[in-house]
Amino acid sequence: MPAEVLIETRGLHKHFVGRKLGFGLAGTAAVRAVDGVDLTIRKGETLGLVGESGCGKSTLGRAILRLIEPTAGVVLHRGIALTKLNRAAMRAERRELQIIFQDPFGSLNPRKTVGATIAEAYAIHRLGGRAERARWVNEMLDLVSLPRDSALRYPHEFSGGQRQRIGIARALALDPEIIVADEAVSALDVSVQAQVLSLLEDLKARLGLSMLFITHDLRVAAQICDRIAVMQRGAIVELKPTAALFAGPEHVYTQELLAAVPGQISSSRAA
Questions:
Q1: Residue 165 to residue 196: CA distance in whole angstroms
Q2: CB of 250 within 8 A of CB of 43?
Q3: What residues contact 218, with CB distance under 8 A and at least 6 apart?
Q4: pLDDT at 267
Q5: What is the spatial distance between Cα 120 and Cα 112, in angstroms, rounded to a whole number?
Q6: 140-195: pLDDT as tens digits
Q7: What would the mean pLDDT of 18-35 be, rounded to a whole number?
Q8: How far apart are alpha carbons 192 and 11 in whole angstroms?
Q9: How far, CA to CA in Å, does 205 sit from each of 36, 199, 211, 250, 255?
Q10: What is the rounded average pLDDT for all residues in the chain?
Q11: What is the mean pLDDT of residues 87-91?
Q12: Considering the entire predicted model, what is its pTM?
């Protein structure tokens, strides 16, 4: 039996209106960053979203979480239409829907200690008292293999890989069901990438996480994703299980992406 569908998008659009100049006249033009996307994310799976820079991957991830408002279409979480919820109802849903950002430094407040950054999630949702929040922060640091005294330090005192672990701890603080990992390892050195990917896979297995894993790196997608959706100009042009996609890409754009990768891509999922 297929796993339960946790997230579904139906005809999701996100258009941005910008100024356009032509023939000496000023006008407006819509950029179709997300253009009619239908997707599902199943319980316990990592769905990869790949494509070149500017194709709309990050915009889609943020629209699913309503960090930006979709122009049209519906996002469902367990059948609940997120796109129709008011602010209070959406805040409750956000406990189940979290994001890991690309930049492990820029996404952290340099004026807050690591402990305060992680504990902010509990404060926003009015969970626990001071002692409980401190205990939960320690548990999150344990989960991502950082020493507990990290709670007293500031982001600039950590390496890039450690800062991304802090970002992961912050995303997991509320025990979410779905994580959007937006180019979560692209800013890291290759050796550090491998460590963070291993951590994500371990957390997925231990916590039963589901993930939308956004990346431009097909090698990374091959390592961590169960299925892969290929995005071009705001639309999904191909979606297959990882092994099937690498074994027999059908869309010409997918073929071009694979052809541009030097050497052979290998992984347990793409074997």
A1: 7
A2: no
A3: 50, 257, 258, 261, 265
A4: 55
A5: 10
A6: 999 999 999 999 999 999 999 999 999 999 999 999 999 999 999 888 888 899 99
A7: 69
A8: 37
A9: 32, 10, 12, 31, 31
A10: 91
A11: 91
A12: 0.91
What pLDDT was estimated at residue 4? 92
Cα-based distances in Å from 186 to 13, 18, 135, 181: 26, 28, 31, 11
**Three-state SS at 40:** strand
Q: What's 182-249 look like in SS3?
A: ECCCCCCCHHHHHHHHHHHHHHHHHHCCEEEEEECCHHHHHHHCCEEEEEECCEEEEEEEHHHHHHCC
User: Per the structure block, which two tokens stand in for 160?
Assistant: 């890039």
Structure token pair of residue 256 = 């071009």
**Distance in angstroms (rounded) separating the CA atoms of residues 62 and 71:** 12
User: Rounded mean pLDDT of 7-29?
Assistant: 76
- Structure tokens that stand for 164 in this block: 């991304």
The percent helix, strand, coil of the chain (3-state, each to 5) is 40, 30, 35
**Residue 190 corresponds to which tokens in the numbers above?**
């290759």
pLDDT digits (tens, 9 = 90+) for 138-153: 999 999 999 999 999 9
For tokens 């690498």, name the residue.
246
N-to-C CA span, the chain: 23
